[in-house]
Amino acid sequence: MSNVTILLYSGKDCCLCDEAEVILNYAAPDASYNKVDVRASTELYHLYGARIPVLKRLDTELELEWPFNEQQLREFLS
């Protein structure tokens, strides 16, 4: 698995976002990621508010939307 940087679009008090982060930490412990609160801007909220959690690779701009499992995450990062 290549070491890519990803964004985790999430929100405050989002249990699905917490679950996605657990899967991310378990399935890709070496992955470098930054959490982005979609409420930080109106644009992000409109793009991701109804879809969080969403992972976005910075190198390819590809996104992985919830729900996803460990295998789907590993394929997304490979």
Topology:
Layout: E1 5-10, H1 15-27, E2 32-37, H2 42-48, E3 54-57, E4 63-65, H3 70-77
Parallel strand pairs: 1-2
Antiparallel strand pairs: 1-3, 3-4
Helix pairs in contact: 1-3
Question: What's this entry about, in short?
Answer:
By secondary structure, this protein is α+β, with helices and mostly antiparallel strands.
Key descriptive features of the protein:
4 strands, 24% strand
> Order of strands across the widest beta sheet?
2-1-3-4
Largest sheet: 4 strands, mixed
User: Percentage of helical residues?
Assistant: 25-40%
C-alpha geometry: globular
Output the number of helix runs.
3
Runs in which pLDDT lies below 50 for 5 or more consecutive residues are none
Task: Give the termini distance in whole angstroms.
Answer: 5 Å
The helix/strand series, from N terminus to C terminus, equals: EHEHEEH
SS content category: alpha+beta
Give a count of the beta strands, DSSP E runs of length 2 or more: 4
Name the average pLDDT. 94
| Portion in beta strands | 15-25%
User: Radius of gyration in whole Å, from Cα?
Assistant: 12 Å
**What kind of assembly state do the chains in view correspond to?**
single chain
